[in-house]
Amino acid sequence: MLILDHLHHRLHNNLPNETPLPNGQKFDLLSLALLGVNSMADKFMEVTSSLQAIKFDSADYVCLKFILLLNADVKNLSNLSHVMSSREQVSQILAQYNNNCYSNIPDKFNHILAVIPDLKQMAQHGVEYLYNMHIQGKAPHATLLMEKLLAKRRQNSSI
C-alpha cells in the first residue's frame, strides 16, 4: 500500500525523488517508498512509466487500493465470500469506468491489474529487507510498521 501511495503521489502531486531538509541534507523519498531497498528503483520507475502511459488517475488509484485491500488470501478470514464478491464488484466498476472514460486506451483495465504482481514483489522485497535490518538491530523497534511486520511473521510461523 505504501508503494502504491507513493506511486500515486509521484504521478499526481509531482512528488520528487528527494526533498531538502531544513539542515541542508536531502531526504530520499524514493528510498523511503521502497522501504530502503534501492535495488528496486528501476522496477519502481518502470511501473511508474507504465501507469503514466495509460493515464492512471485518482479513480484508478482508489479502485486499485480497494482491490489490494480486498485480499482473499488472508489467513483466518471470517467472510471470504463477502471479500471476494466485494473485490469483484470493485473490479467491475474499474473496468466499466475505464471502458467509459478511457475508450481510447485499449485494455487499460488489464494494464492496471498487471502492476499488482510488481507491487507485491516490491513490497515483499521491502518486508524482507526491513526484517533483516531488524534482526541486525539496525531498524527501529517501536514503529507501527515494524510491529505489523513482526506480528505478520509470528502469525505465519505459528501456522
Question: Could you walk me through the main structural features you see in this protein, from its secondary elements to its overall organization?
Answer:
With 159 residues, this protein is mainly α. The chain has one domain: Retinoid X Receptor, CATH 1.10.565. The chain contains eight helices and two strands. It has helices spanning 2-12, 29-33, 41-53, 58-69, 80-101, 108-114, 116-135, 144-158; strands spanning 18-20, 26-28. The protein has a two-stranded antiparallel sheet with strand order 1-2. A hairpin with a 5-residue loop joins strand 1 (18-20) and strand 2 (26-28). The longest helix is centred in the middle third of the chain and has 22 residues, at 80-101. It is flat and about 50 Å long. The model has no long low-confidence stretch (mean pLDDT 84).
Q: Which helices and strands appear, and what pairs or packs with what?
A:
Elements: H1 2-12, E1 18-20, E2 26-28, H2 29-33, H3 41-53, H4 58-69, H5 80-101, H6 108-114, H7 116-135, H8 144-158
Antiparallel strand pairs: 1-2
Helix pairs in contact: 4-5
Q: Which fold name corresponds to the CATH topology?
A: Retinoid X Receptor
Helix content: 55-70%
Give, in spatial order, the strands making up the sheet with the most strands.
Answer: 1-2
Tell me the CATH architecture.
Orthogonal Bundle
- The CATH homologous superfamily name equals Retinoid X Receptor
Radius of gyration: 18 Å
How much of the sequence is in beta strands? Answer: under 5%
Strand segment count: 2
Which spans of ≥5 residues are poorly predicted at pLDDT below 50? none
State the separation between the terminal residues, measured CA to CA: 24 Å
Mean pLDDT: 84
- CATH class, named Mainly Alpha
* Major β-sheet annotation: 2 strands, antiparallel
Query: What count of domains describes the coordinates?
Result: 1
The secondary-structure class comes to: mainly alpha
| Run of helices and strands | HEEHHHHHHH
